[in-house]
Amino acid sequence: MLVIGEALVDVLQKPDGSVSAHTGGSPLNVAVGLARCGGRVTFATRLGDDDAARMVLDALQREGVEVFTPPMSGSTTVARGSVGSDGRAEYLFESLTWDLGPADDELVELAAGALVVHSGSFAASLDPGRFAVLNSMRKARGRALVTFDPNVRADTAGTREVEVERIEEVVALADVVRASDEDLEWLYPQSSAFETASRWLSMGPSLVVVTSGGSDAVAMTAEHVVVRAARSVDVVDTVGAGDAVMAAVISALVDAGCGGVGAAERVSALSEAQVSRLLDVALAAGALAVESEGANIPSRERILDVVGPVADGREGVLL
């Protein structure tokens, strides 16, 4: 599995005034989640030549994630944030850049041989690096399961019109898209989440999943629409919750044979029961992630402890 995107260090101030530092970045969190679900993962990113980069590399090595990066130089992105009483975090980004430089061509070749290609967040919207994401997805389309999570950052985005255009360019290349209700409200303030999911589905994806924090979530294919209530949990913070959902969705789809060549068609052919199970798995992962501090992406075993085995009795699979 190939994940493309930013890696950074989250420095969070909590409501009690204490400060903690964790590795982060939406794509990095997804890469970790895939590894914890048993996937063989390569994470393509940009890192500076500094202590923050070494912290990221050490964390990924512990998770068994292989790292693909151009020669390290400059500074690694740091996100300084605060967590409110509702568990939501707001960030200010330092040294925010996204560019793989001369490694772009090699990245495209990695994408051509992957079972899954995932990207999102800054990597899909920031120049000049977003073109490497687009080219990799084009190369992987039809050969791999291509997935995307926009993870919109309104405080760093350009105009709404430019951001919508860039995100829709990636949506059209993806087989599976996951977004939050907050993403969709910012991108399309005049449309409901259901309307946007339907519109995105018409652009090319086989599956669109929309999560809404503690409210209902929806999974939509051309044949099925499934709505599930979010699990009731005590929220410590919401950092990484959407990334946990994305990693669980990808892992479950791979369990169901929806990776590699023909992935889009196999996702489209999922039964209503399978789509329902997929959403249950996704919501379980998100709920587990918010119960502890930082981007605590759950493992396959923890998710299965919540949702139980699949209906046909196969052991250890999510879908």
TrEMBL record:
GO molecular function, one term: ATP binding
One Pfam family this sequence matches: PfkB
Stretches assigned to the Carbohydrate kinase PfkB domain: 3-299
Gene3D superfamilies, per database record: 3.40.1190.20
UniProt keywords, alphabetically: ATP-binding, Kinase, Nucleotide-binding, Transferase
Signal peptide limits: none
InterPro entries: Carboh/pur_kinase_PfkB_CS, PfkB_Carbo_kinase, PfkB_dom, Ribokinase-like
Statement: the UniProt record of this protein carries the keyword Nucleotide-binding: yes
UniProt entry tagged with the keyword ATP-binding: yes
Family the UniProt entry places it in: Belongs to the carbohydrate kinase PfkB family.
Protein name: PfkB family carbohydrate kinase
Species for this entry: Pseudoglutamicibacter cumminsii
